[in-house]
Write the structure tokens for this entry.
Amino acid sequence: MKEARLPSLLEVCCVLAAFLAVVFSFTALLELPIQLALFVGWFIVMLLGLRLGFTYDSLQGSIIKGISNGLEAVIILMAVGALIGTWIAGGVVPTIIYYGLDFIHPSIFLLATLIICALTSLSTGTSWGTVGTAGIAMMGIGEGLGLPLPLVAGAVLSGAYFGDKLSPLSDSTVLAASMSKVNVISHVKSMLYLDVPAFIITAILFTGAGFYHGSSNIDLDRVQSIMTSLNDTFNISPLMLAPAVIVIGLLIMKKPSIPTISFGALVGIIWAVLFQNADVVSSIETAYNGFQISSGSEFIDELLNRGGISGMLGSIAVIILGLGIGGMLEKVGVLTVIMNTFVDKIKNAGSLSVSTIFTGLFTNIFGCAMYVSLILTPKLMESSYDRLHIDRRVLSRNTEVGGTMTSGMVPWSDNGIFMAGILGVSTLSYLPFMWMSFVSIALVIIYGYTGKFIWYTDGAETEIETDMEEDVSDIAK
């Protein structure tokens, strides 16, 4: 049997072009599910692997290995789906919407959305959980206030990804750090240099947008009608917020996310039975099939008829298929060939930062899952950082921006499909308003070419660490 070889650049371009053609034709022209396009993508990459001399068994093994690397995301997604369904049934989400409509002024709503989602994500360590709970509520409030939903979605995602990147509880944070061989706390400290100024800039942008949109187009009669419908349909009281307080508290105490989110779903079932006059069986069923209601209000029905494990199955399929493609792309050497074509052009921290972001986005596009990007980007880029003697903390930080912050921009990625489905706004509609992501990318490039907050490993570890601690203290002040 002949020894397997690396693909040529022409072969790589042909395969990737075929993959993109299938994705776009299936989704844009034929209106077929993206899952089918990704399944076809398996065989496109597999044919390349066979042509290169790989056996079918080895390719299948790479698929299984790739999927196993991201199974935690599948379990978390199921738990989040159950949580959404039971928290709506238990009155948690409706209560947040009700009080939000009552207390948050339209002019500062976008800023409040950014801050609330950032704090929730920072405390819980999950952007998906944040979007599925606080995010849904803020979308409901925003729609009630008459604000553009893509803009509200942008504020939700900006806050959710901000907290996700800074939380030591986040699986993406841990993965980016561990794959870059960096201590998690050191990674979080390095992220402060980027996230704090990016958040401030983003907050200013959403404050301006809030005053522009919040000063007009607010139908107070519609707001009051929505609040009345919520109050007539659910038992609204501060006690309904207890499940959210419990879950956030447990996650702050660093309890494991999967059992904690699942426990939150159980509390939602209990709240539905005790306070929303729901029977036990139907309350339990919402964990799998989601919440269903016919309230007579089209707004309430469209907003709250969602959730459940079954509602996440499409996203789960995308993750599994994307992880499989990512595993094969790594196995057959597609990513290695691409890196080899421009590695010689990486001469300094600026070009290295741009290359890292591009690699993160590229692996999100063709790997279709954030986990693929966070696993492969450090593997592909680490040698370049070592060659230029740039500290691995810069690698982990840039990996987060290239991998995590761009994941929601790809319509067929796990994050793109999940966020669009939960928020009810298409990926391409909310994409222009992912201001936290764009500002972060811009700052990474600026830092790279100016040398600001770029640390080197030439025997200066102690000095670097001391400088970092002093800078973090200054930022905190």
The chain has 24 helices and no strands. The radius of gyration is 23 Å. Residues 184-214 form the longest helix (31 residues). Confidence is low (pLDDT under 50) at residues 459-477.
